[in-house]
Design goal:
The protein folds into 2 domains: about 230 residues, Glutamine Phosphoribosylpyrophosphate, subunit 1, domain 1; about 200 residues, Rossmann fold (3-Layer(aba) Sandwich). Helix 5 crosses helix 6. Strand 7 and strand 8 form a beta hairpin. By secondary structure, it is an alpha+beta fold. It is globular, with a radius of gyration of 23 Å. The strands form 6 sheets. It has a 7-stranded antiparallel sheet. A 6-stranded antiparallel sheet has the order 5-6-7-8-12-13, covered by helices on one side. Strands 17-20-21-22 form a 4-stranded parallel sheet. It is about 30% helix and about 25% strand.
């Protein structure tokens, strides 16, 4: 391959969303909000702005990273009013500009835009119904289904009733922000609360964001996380909170947000992500102790769990691998003889630190196993004596249908190999995953069984779905 994209087997979330009500620099602030949320999606990004009541929505979208897509001229061109933004990683569907969000529709000379994080598991059913009634779809995104439902109900009523009727039809995972032709910002969270969405305030202007780290960057005050099934309507009258017409049996926040997806400086549902990851590492040290010379992560995924493991075990924490932070989205592969270049270009070992040592590698997850296998092989070739791997979550054995990119069981190596088989496949001296019970207890949450979705670990799915169609409806 002459110019391959660096593929990473790490799991990927679908996207991050941001919204700001009525600010003279709404586009610029949204840009920085998306910059803080870049980890949630690196394929495309976009900002949509409404400048005044019944005004057109102006958008700028592109493929790539936030700083690659926007420049000062782009932001000034769409400046003013209310804004929503989106960073996207496509779990399935085409990674093309057509599918970049926010998604905008024009109806009766009025514009509406939506930014969505999650997956609607019944999108295929709703799309078929809408097409039979004459709707024409422009994208392969499930987010477009919501807008069609919203517009259909808006013809018969006001914005609030149209939103309630639209979300009463959709099922699955969503944290969504709607921008109306009047400049209203409407935040919506599914009844199970799969994906995070928080409310903040910036100099009197309300802000919505997937994670609180976005508030920190723009110096906004964090107010609170939206409740599962909550809809907040932000307009000239202030803020109004209403509830989803269908209540869930219990909350199902994706626990993998804490383990991997969210930035460590974010707080989700009252729990700091950094501290949660350290707690998972401490529990892992209690469940799977082993003698070794040092504890190390593969940066940056296992860093914080490794700190917790090292402190609990008393074994020194070291950065045995150094990450190259200047790797672009693509590179020129030098020669075919330089195998595994895509892995080695990102991480390089500190040879003098690890040669001849017994080491413990802390990882937050193993999904497909190919990258871990390559890295372990490289460490053996450097003369590392023993390699023990500890994983700060249980094995992924079941697909996710709520917004993570492993949507078939065949992709998950832990579903195909037992613990000993996987240990031998990876070339390890020992391998241990954190138990489900240990993960739940380490969360520090009261009644965790009614707080988290852990379907990728135990196969207990909170919202029913048809697996034949879920890959078709993912964002």
């Amino acid at each position: 391959m002459d110019n391959p994209r660096i593929e990473n087997e790490r799991p990927k979330d679908e996207c991050g969303v941001f919204g700001l009500y009525r600010h003279t620099e709404a586009a610029k602030i949204t840009y920085f909000g998306l910059y803080a949320l870049q980890h949630r999606g690196q394929e495309s990004a976009g900002i949509s702005v409404n400048r005044g009541v019944n005004d057109k929505i102006f958008s700028h979208k592109g493929m790539g990273l936030v700083p690659e897509i926007f420049n000062i001229e782009d932001l000034e061109r769409i400046e003013g009013g209310s804004a929503i933004g989106h960073v996207r990683y496509s779990t399935t569907g085409d990674s093309v500009i057509t599918n970049a969000q926010p998604f905008v529709v024009n109806h009766r000379h009025r514009s509406y835009a939506v930014a969505h994080n999650g997956n609607l598991v019944n999108a295929h059913i709703l799309k078929e119904e809408l097409e039979e009634q004459g709707s024409i779809f422009q994208t392969t995104m499930d987010s477009e289904v919501f807008l069609h439902l919203f517009i259909k109900n808006l013809i018969k009523g006001d914005v609030e009733s149209a939103v309630l009727k639209a979300i009463s039809k959709i099922e699955g995972a969503y944290s969504m922000i709607l921008l109306t032709c009047k400049g209203e910002i409407i935040g919506m969270k599914d009844p199970n609360g799969f994906r995070p969405l928080s409310l903040g305030k910036l100099n009197g202007h309300y802000v919505l964001a997937s994670e609180t780290c976005a508030f920190d960057l723009i110096q906004a005050e964090f107010i609170r996380e939206l409740d599962p099934g909550e809809i907040v309507i932000i307009n000239e009258d202030g803020i109004k909170s209403i509830k989803h017409p269908k209540a869930a049996k219990h909350k199902s926040l994706c626990i993998f947000e804490y383990i991997y997806f969210a930035r460590p400086d974010s707080t989700i549902d009252g729990k700091n992500v950094y501290e949660m990851r350290k707690a998972l590492g401490r529990r892992l040290a209690k469940e799977a102790p082993v003698d070794a010379d040092l504890v190390m992560p593969f940066p940056d995924s296992g860093n914080y769990a490794a700190i917790g493991y090292a402190r609990e075990s008393g074994i020194p924490f070291e950065m045995g691998m150094i990450r190259n932070h200047y790797v672009g989205r693509s590179f020129i592969q030098p020669t075919q003889s330089m195998r595994d270049f895509t892995v080695r270009v990102k991480l390089n070992p500190v040879r003098e630190l690890i040669k001849g040592k017994d080491i413990i590698i802390i990882e937050d997850s193993i999904i497909r196993g190919t990258t871990a296998k390559t890295r372990v092989k490289a460490l053996r070739e450097l003369g590392v004596k023993k390699i023990h791997m500890r994983i700060s979550c249980p094995p992924h054995r079941f697909p996710c249908y709520y917004g993570i990119d492993f949507s078939s069981k065949g992709e998950l190596i832990a579903a195909k190999k037992s613990g000993d088989d996987l240990k031998d496949y990876l070339g390890l001296d020992s391998l241990h995953y954190l138990s489900i019970e240990g993960m739940m207890e380490a969360s520090g949450v009261n009644n965790p069984e009614k707080s988290f979705c852990k379907a990728c670990f135990d196969g207990d799915y909170p919202v029913p779905f048809d697996p034949k169609f879920t890959k078709q409806c993912m964002g």
